Amino acid sequence: MYPPATSVLPCSAGIGLRAPHYREVLGTLPKLGWVEAHSENFFGGGAPLHTLLAVRQHYAVSLHGVGMGLASPDPLNEDHLAALKQLCDVVQPARVSEHLCWNTVNGDVINDLLPFPHTHAALAHVASRIDHVQAVLGRQLLVENLSSYLSFTSSEMSEGEFLAELVRRTGCGILFDVENLYVNVRNLGVDEDEFIRAIPAHAVGEYHLAGFSVRDGCLVDTHDHPVYDAVWTLYEKVLRHIGPRPTLIEWDGNIPALPVLMAEADKAQQRMEACCVL
User: Fold this and answer.
1) Which of 73, 104, 149, 223 can bridge 252 by disulfide, Cβ–Cβ 3.0-4.6 Å?
2) How does pLDDT run across 132-189, given as a tens digit for each residue?
3) CA atoms within 13 A on the CB side of 254
4) Max Cα distance, the chain (Å)
């Protein structure tokens, strides 16, 4: 088993650290539980990494990747993995996470987070790649459930069952994206209670919350709105079943002023604290 953290990620609400807020965060040091940064944005070093290290002096940092393609049929990009390893060694993040998706085929990179059938063959493939990533990083990896806009008739298990078996085989953790689950409930008819029951509570290291868009009746995981009431309700159900965990507010499009983002984090904090009282 690999260590889940080299620093402590508080069981509180945090925000995604995005470029429009760099200066204000460092200039005012607002009361934030923690911050998450997209790993690939800092691979090149320079000013972005200098900023992240300055933020790291004041807040716990979680690194979240979008480009590894754990389920891709192509071999893992070892240069990408080496860059992530170097970043982790410098930043010493409290958590490192990746989406459970594919994004390359025959050397072509697709700028998307694509779903795949949950088969036994896919499970073996993804598990071996997670084992390799964790061995290189020397730490536990959290994998995130995916928002999807189609399902596969060839799937042999549910996404929740797939995640639970990955945990059993590799010792990885789970980044439980509550909004992604809600999108799949609405778009694909996923049973939210079945998904929640399938997830091993001990493996959940973080929650994500975000706002979606609606296009032609389809919910799209755009991270450009406040968290909707229905997602807050689902989050409360997850808290009751699994318990409080560090919770991130993601906002990547139409990024609002920092106080607006912090107000969303406060809402998550209040719900976590209410769960602890119950």
Assistant:
1) 223
2) 999 999 999 999 999 998 899 999 999 999 999 999 999 999 999 999 999 999 999 9
3) 10
4) 52
3-state secondary structure of 226: coil
Contacts 24+ apart (CB under 8 A), 233-240: 234/178, 234/181, 234/182, 234/185, 234/192, 235/178, 235/207, 235/209, 235/268, 235/271, 236/271, 236/275, 237/192, 237/196, 238/176, 238/178, 238/196, 238/207, 239/271, 239/272, 239/275, 240/275, 240/278
Check residue 4 and give its pLDDT.
47
Closest CA to 19 of 48, 58, 62: 48
Per cent of the chain over pLDDT 90 is 85
Helix H or strand E segment including 242 = helix 229-242
Residue 153 carries which DSSP code? T
Amino acid identity, position 10? P
Which residue from 122, 121, 141 is spatially nearest to 131, judged by alpha carbons? 141
Domains of the chain: 13-277 (3.20.20.150)
